[in-house]
Amino acid sequence: MAEEKKRLIKKIQATSQMKKIMADYFYELDRASKEGSPPVAWCTSVGPGELLLSLGFLVYYPENHGAMLGTTRMANNYIPVANAIGYSPDICSYLTSDVGAFIKKETPLSLAYEGINEVPKPDVLVYNTNQCRDVQDWFSWYARELKVPTLGISTYRCIGNVSDYNLESITKQIKDLIPHLETISGNKFDIDKFREVLTRSYECTQLWKKVLETNMAVPAPMSFFDGTIQMGPAVVLRGTETAIEYYTLLLKELEEKVKNTEGAVDGEKFRLYWEGMPIWGKLRNLSEFFIELKTAVVASTYCNSWIFEAFDPEYPFMSLARAYTELFIVRDENFKEKYIEEMVHKYKLDGILFHDAKTCPNNSNNRYGMPERLQKRLNIPTLTINGDLNDLRCFSEEQAKTNIEAFVEQLEVV
Amino acid sequence: MNYFTGIDVGASATKAVIINAEKEVVGYSVNNSGADFRAASDTAFSKAKKNADPKGSENYIIVATGYGRRNIPYVDGIKTEISCHARGSYHFFRNAHTLIDIGGQDSKVIRVDVLGERGSFKMNRKCAAGTGAFLEEIANRLDVKLGQLNRLAEKAQKNIEIGSYCTVFTATEILTKIREGEQVENIVKGIFNSVITRAIEMDPMENNIVMTGGVVAYNPFLVKMFEEKLGKKIFVPPLPQLTGAFGAALFALEGKPTEG
Known about the structure:
The structure holds two protein chains of two kinds. In chain A, about 55% of the residues lie in helices and about 10% in strands.
C-alpha cells in the first residue's frame, strides 16, 4: 500500500539537480564556517539578502532550516526545549524548533549532508520584520547566545498602498546597514556589485514566477506541495547564477508537462488555492490525499511570496525597499483580498483553503473574517483547517482530512 | 430485494441504519466504537439486520461515514459525516436550515439550502470543548452518570456562567464552583450553556435551526435551553443520533457515494 501510494506523487526530474545545488550551497557555508572565511551572514528569507551577497557574505537563512526541521518531522523534538527556556508554544514554531535544535546541538543538515555537524556560525545576523516580530526575537536569541551583532530593518505593517514615506524609511534603514556590514565583512560596499546581484535576483524571481504560472494550465503540472520544495533555490540562492540555471531547467520541464497535458493530479477535477503556511511535516501525506481526491492545489500565497517584481538595478536601494515592502504579508486586508481574487481568476480556482497556523498569526489570514468575505463576494467556497507550520501537536490529521474531504464533496455539488 | 445501509463510525458511537426503497427505517442500532472500528461496524450492522432482516435474505448496499469510514472493507461507498448529516436532516426538514450536530468528538455547523444541497460548514477546532467528550469528562468530574445530566440540568435553580474554552480549564472552573458550594444541578446547567455557546460561536444561526447528534438525543433539555437562547424553535429529527447514518443510507439508495 505504501509503495502504491508513493507512485501517486509524480516525480519532477529537475529535483535531482536541485538536491545537488542545495548540497553545494550548504557545503560552501559549512566550509566558510569552519575556515572562518568568507564571512557568513544569517538573514531572514525576505530580508536584504541581495545587499549581503554584494558585500561578499555567504548567506544562510534560518527559516529554511526551520522548514527542514518541519519536513523531517524533527521539530517536535526541539520545540519543548525552547518552551522550557521561556519561549512560548504559542510563538513561531520555526523559532522554537530552531532554537531548541541549536540548544540540543542537532540539525537536519547533518542527516542530509555527511560531514556537516552544525549550522554555519554567523558573523552577523540581519533581519527584516516584514514577516513578523518573531524573526527579530529569533535572531536576538542567537545574538545573545553567540555574541554576534544583530542588525535589522523594522518595517511597516498592514499597509494599503505603498507610499513614498514607507519606501524612504526602508531605504534609509537599508543604507544604514552598510557601514556596519562593511566593518564586519571587511569589504567595501560596491554599488555595481549590488546592481549585479539585484539583476540576478530579478531574473531568478521572473523565472520562479513563470514556473508558478505554468499551473495556470489545466491540468496543473505541479502541486502546491511540490512548489514548497521547488522554491528552495528562490529562497536561499536568489542573486546567484545557480538559481537562474535551476529555474530555467525546471521551467523547461514544466512547460513540457503542460504541452503534454500531464497534470500533477491524474484526472484533476478541482483546483484550489492554499492560503497560509505549509504544514511541513505533512507535505507528502497531504499531497497524496489531494491526489486521491482528484483535487489539485495549484496556487498559493506562500510560493508567490518569493516573487519580487520590483527589483530594479537602476534604483537598487529604492527597488529593494519596494520589493520587501510590497509583499502580501505586509499589506492590509483589502490588498490581500484583491490579490487572492486575482489568483482565483488567473488560476481558474474552485475553492480557497485557509490554513490557520497556530503559531504564525501573520500568515494565517482567516482570523479577521476574510474567508467569509471572499466566499460571499466571489461566490466561491472557502475552508479553514487548523494546523501549524512545524508544531504537529497543533494539527489533528483526522479532523483536517474530514474537513478537506467534505469540502471536495461540497465542490462536487456546486 | 435491496436494503440500503448507512454505517456511521463515530469517535464515540457506531450507528447503523437500514432503510428500504421507500426510505423507511427497517432496522437500526447504536453501540460503542471502542478501539476496533471494524468490529464496531460489524456489530452495529448485524444488530440492525436482526430487526430488518431476521432471515438474512436481503441484499445490502452500504455507505460508510464517520471517522472510521475507511476502516470498513465491505462498503459500496464512503461519504463524510458532514454530507451525510446534511442529507439525513434535509429528509425531514425540506427547507434552508442551519444544522448543528454535536457528536462525541466534534461539533459541526452545516448549511443546507432549500434544495437540500449542502453548503459551507464549520467544525470545532481541535479542542473537545462543546462536544460529547466534554460532557463525559465533566460528568466524571462531578461523579454523576452521563445519562443523569439531562435530569440534573432540568432541576437547576439558577444560571451560572462557565466560560472556559478548554475542557481542562472548565474542570478547574467547576472545582471553584464546588468549593463555593454550588449545587451540582446548577453546574450541569452551566455546562449545557457552555456547549450551546461553543456552537453559537462557530457560525451565525441563520434560517431554521436543526439539531442532531448523540448529545441532543440524550439531553433534550439542552435543546430547550438553546431555543430559549436563540428565541426560536429548534427542530430535531427522529432518532437524532442516527441522522448521519440515515443520510449515508439515503446516499446508498440514491447511488451518490464516492468510491469506497
